[in-house]
Amino acid sequence: MNSLRPYVAAFVARFKTMLQYRAAALAGFTTQCWWGGLKVMVFAAFYGHSTHPHASMTLAQVITYTWVGQALLTLQPWGGDPEVAAAVRTGGVSYDRLRPVDTYTWWFIRATAWMTARAVPRAALMFAAAAVLLPWAGLDAWAWRAPADATQAGLFAISLLLMILLGAAFTMLINLCITATLTDRGINTLAPALVILFSGNLIPLGLFPDWVQPLLIAQPFAGMLDIPTRIYIGALSGGAAWGGLALQVFWTLVFVMFGRKGIDRVMARLEVQGG
Amino acid sequence: MNACYLLRRYFMTSIRAQLQYPASSLMLACSAFLTSVIELAAIWALFNRFGEVQGWRFGDICLFFGMVSISFSIADFMSRGFDVFGNEFVRTGDFDRVLLRPRTATLQLIGYDFRLRVVGRLLQGLLVLGVATRALEFHWSAGAVALALWTTAGGVALFFGLIVLQATLAFWTVESLEVVNVVTYGGVQAAQYPLGLYTGWFRNFLIFVVPIACVAYFPVLAILHKADPLGAPGWFLPLAPAVGFVFLAVSFAVWSLGVRKYTSTGT
């Protein structure tokens, strides 16, 4: 148990620090309201009515999907950990190497804290706005609905946890890329393009053409929003939901394996900058 | 009178500096291109599934999207100095030096930086226009081209005005407020779709508060020779981009108010 203590401490410390950025959370919330609202209106116009013969999801499901996606935005790996990038730039990375902890786990834990601490206030605000305020204002049709049923809610909780781990495992790959290339500019502009399209953040993956569906669900980014959200709205249930969870676990393990292998290689010939 | 000469010098210096890192500039431009092409993929997927929306086809949306992307990219190219104004000039006190030089602050801020990566978005806008032309089998008459250029000019003025307003806020907040990105980037997003898709108050917001509809929706209707299904008068459609210039003028009026109020934060 003692060997876990530094990691727990690192998580708690980072989590508390990130919670302090209240103005950033508010700004993020404003942006997410705008984007979410815009998408909801566009989807409503495309559907015309609450269901559409060519779509497998109902409008209410797509709207809930949109709000959940906006609420969980910071749980998605939009770029590397800025503190890792700064450590690489300034040479502070050598301190991380000197700590009597496993560098991969250390960075991984800090990444999960960084992502979840920013997600908590944003998700709470988003929920208050879309699930409480909107129905209260009479815009019930545009509201964030409750999960399909208790089973789906339970599965969603597991899937959400897996989404955080998968996101952190991918963040670690970005971190390694930053450590190897000594700059975060290239990968931090490329990663968002992949994440926004393949996670379902831009539009729900289920709305893409039917012939790409098997590919879309199998690729790793689906586990970073689409799978948990589909479970939440009840579009993925029973055996299919368990399959989704298995895919999330599979991709997390693959990313962690690559990350662990990569970190050994990168650290073996790490150039420390600064002076 | 040598303002043009100075701008050209600023421009050359900035471009030459970025060309010192050709791979980085190219990659950033490619990413900008990729990011906006991905948005097109989403629009395509929606039309592929739903066929059409309120009588609008994929090509129509591409025309809206392409026009507004081009306008925004040009405005973004020229306004970097205003974009980072809060953090790079007000907070550091560097604006004092700008004010001391015998040229206007506007000229110096425009010349601050011209970012090559913006070319990615511009290319994407042109590509989307190409897609629109093919999808609609649109014939670009001289009138349509002139109207498109006029729309772009109005759009550049509007987006430039928005970024100047963002910079002006920094006189009070000292830091750059990213919230304005909601109406610039978010505005580009909103202008992709025809106004009829939105609910009433949001429509009014896009017409009267941040008049993005006037530099995208209305003039594009004129280019397409369509009447506005929402009932805007026909004579107004081609004239709408003028609103962008009015907005720019108002923005600069507020800006000079801010400059007069400015107290240095530097040491």
Give the helices and strands, then pairings.
The complex is a heterodimer of chains A (275) and B (267).
Chain A: H1 5-19, H2 22-47, H3 59-71, H4 82-90, H5 93-98, H6 103-136, H7 150-181, H8 185-198, H9 213-218, H10 226-233, H11 238-268
Chain B: H1 3-19, H2 22-50, H3 58-78, H4 80-83, H5 85-90, H6 95-100, H7 105-110, H8 118-136, H9 142-173, H10 181-191, H11 200-209, H12 217-223, H13 236-239, H14 242-261
What gyration radius of chain B follows from the Cα positions, in whole Å?
Answer: 19 Å
Please give the share of residues in helix of chain B: over 70%
As a percent range, the share of strand residues of chain B is under 5%
The number of distinct β-strands of chain B equals: 0
Structure overview:
Chain A is mostly helical and 275 residues long. Chain A contains eleven helices and no strands. Chain A has one domain (2-268). Chain A has helices spanning 5-19, 22-47, 59-71, 82-90, 93-98, 103-136, 150-181, 185-198, 213-218, 226-233, 238-268. In chain A, helix 1 packs parallel to helix 6, helix 2 (22-47) packs across helix 6 and helix 7 (150-181) runs parallel beside helix 11. The longest helix of chain A is centred in the middle third of the chain and has 34 residues, at 103-136. The two termini of chain A are 37 Å apart. By secondary structure, chain B is mostly helical. Chain B has one domain (3-261). Chain B is built from 14 helices and no strands. In chain B, helix 9 packs antiparallel against helix 12 (217-223) and helix 9 (142-173) runs parallel beside helix 14 (242-261). The longest helix of chain B is centred in the middle third of the chain and has 32 residues, at 142-173. The chains are: A mainly alpha (275), B mainly alpha (267).
List keywords for this structure.
heterodimer, A: 275 residues, mainly alpha, 71% helix, B: 267 residues, 72% helix, globular
